[in-house]
Specification:
about 350 residues, 10 helices, elongated
């Protein structure tokens, strides 16, 4: 690399990490002021507050806003270079505009891989510790999850539970159905079932079984039935939160299992999976837009470039939020919901690159 490449890379990464560090400190101060009452009330240890909660909170926040602050960093130092006629001097020395973009994309690629690594391998582990801390010292624990739970535990085998008690690992108004191509052939209902953690089986109380073979039907009743099911208490957990503790490969396997169960949150899980690829790529796209937009020397100077940059960045966030909402609750495919905003702004970046001063 030449001196120019090192000069731009230092400015890029230095500005990015300086800006993200400042905003992290500000967010931690505001978050601490909001949660200080919970910490004092539940007597959270100072060591856990600093090294378990906030230390694991930082990677999550850095990755969440990495694309935005990468864009702001590019806008800030590039517009400053333009106002001080540094870009004019670079182009006048015979270096093409495309060649000048090389250190920008080296830095953006580094930050994209950094974001991908954080999202898929660092943050899931950090979230596991952070969420455990929140459940103990911030959030009130809930013994029941949403009522009326439906799931498929194996092909053709469906379970219905009116409510599940996480503390006692027990379910109320339990129903298990087995269905083949010819229709329903087995049904088990019970008022109360409980998971035996030692045996790994379910103890079914006051059960009622129906076997249907064509026109013949056999009925059996009983007080207690000890049976093994392809079902664990963890299957009743709030999986929306559990996704935050999974890496990219675990999410893929998890989605396959949830699709088998017939989960209603498949679209949400798919969007979470694609975000971990789209957001790092968005870092490169926002870098392209930033350098193309701010490389022109204007009368407004840095203020004009920052204003235009913030407008574009918040437009990207708004567009992403709208499209992902349609992906979760509408008919838009999750893959398109996540990637459409990135590709549209990539086209905008190519357009700005074309009209940028060269």
């Amino acid at each position: 690399m030449k001196k120019l490449d090192i000069y731009i890379i230092k400015k890029f990464l230095g500005t990015f990490f300086y800006a993200i560090s400042l905003i992290v400190i500000i967010v931690i101060i505001f978050d601490l002021s909001e949660k200080i009452d919970d910490f004092l009330e539940k007597k959270a240890p100072l060591y856990d507050i600093i090294f378990v909660y906030y230390l694991n909170f930082i990677p999550f926040f850095v990755n969440l806003f990495s694309a935005l602050f990468c864009f702001i960093a590019v806008i800030f130092f590039t517009s400053k270079m333009a106002s001080e006629t540094e870009i004019v001097a670079i182009l006048s020395s015979g270096i093409s505009f495309k060649r000048m973009l090389v250190p920008y994309f080296i830095s953006a690629t580094f930050l994209a891989f950094f974001s991908f690594f954080l999202a898929n391998f660092v943050i899931p582990i950090a979230n596991e510790r952070r969420l455990a801390f929140e459940k103990e010292f911030i959030k009130n624990s809930k013994d029941f999850r949403d009522r009326n739970i439906h799931m498929q535990i194996s092909p053709g085998t469906y379970v219905y539970v009116e409510s599940f008690d996480k503390k006692n690992k027990s379910a109320f108004q339990f129903s298990l159905e087995k269905i083949s191509n010819s229709g329903l052939y087995y049904k088990l209902t019970s008022d109360y079932v409980r998971y035996d953690t030692i045996k790994g089986t379910w103890i079914i109380s006051n059960y009622y079984e129906r076997y249907m073979l064509g026109l013949n039907e056999h009925v059996r009743k009983g007080k207690v039935l000890d049976t093994l099911l392809n079902l664990k208490p963890s299957d009743f957990n709030d999986n929306v939160e559990n996704v935050e503790t999974m890496n990219y490969f675990e999410i893929r396997d998890f989605i396959d299992k949830e699709r088998l169960k017939g989960s209603d949150n498949i679209a949400f899980y798919e969007i979470e999976k694609h975000k971990r690829l789209a957001y790092p790529f968005a870092t490169v796209v926002m870098t392209l837009i930033g350098v193309s937009l701010s490389s022109r020397k204007t009368r407004g100077g840095i203020g004009f470039h920052l204003g235009a940059g913030l407008t574009i960045s918040f437009a990207f966030i708004l567009f992403m939020q709208i499209s992902t909402t349609f992906g979760i609750y509408g008919n838009l495919h999750p893959t398109l919901a996540v990637w459409i905003p990135t590709f549209i702004f990539a086209i905008l970046g190519l357009f700005l690159l074309r009209i940028a001063p060269k």
